Amino acid sequence: MKFQDAKQFEEVNVFGMGQPNDAYAAYFTGQSFLNPLTGPEAGLHLSNVTFEPGCRNNWHVHHAKSGGGQILICTAGEGWYQEEGKAAVALEPGRVIVIPANVKHWHGAKADSWFSHIAMEVPGEETSTQWLEPVADKEYQEL
Length: 143
Description:
Elements: H1 6-12, E1 19-20, E2 28-29, E3 32-36, E4 46-51, E5 56-57, E6 60-63, E7 66-67, E8 70-77, E9 79-83, E10 89-91, E11 96-99, E12 105-109, E13 115-121, E14 124-125, E15 128-131, H2 137-141
């Protein structure tokens, strides 16, 4: 279900919007919000990431020598996920996206809806995230 109104969206965003994602703002087009769900003691990083309508992150790669990657669990609103060279996939609550290590991709909200997902970094050996170029406005608007 699409949500354009932030107040209505927050009523269904069960894990909460959290705070503006200022630490990673350089890697997003539009405003995103971050609500960490686990701390370092958990050994597994989980955060609820919320995107305002039209917000998306840059192309990026979760590198790993072994293991690694990312899992997205869509929880509210509607969004997009795309791997390089493939068609974009619509995201809606209940959809799970498993992103293998070393795959260039991006994800974010649809132009006309708020969107949230839980992002989980998959443990691995020698993991890192490489942030790349923004998703081109023309490419995004054609979705």
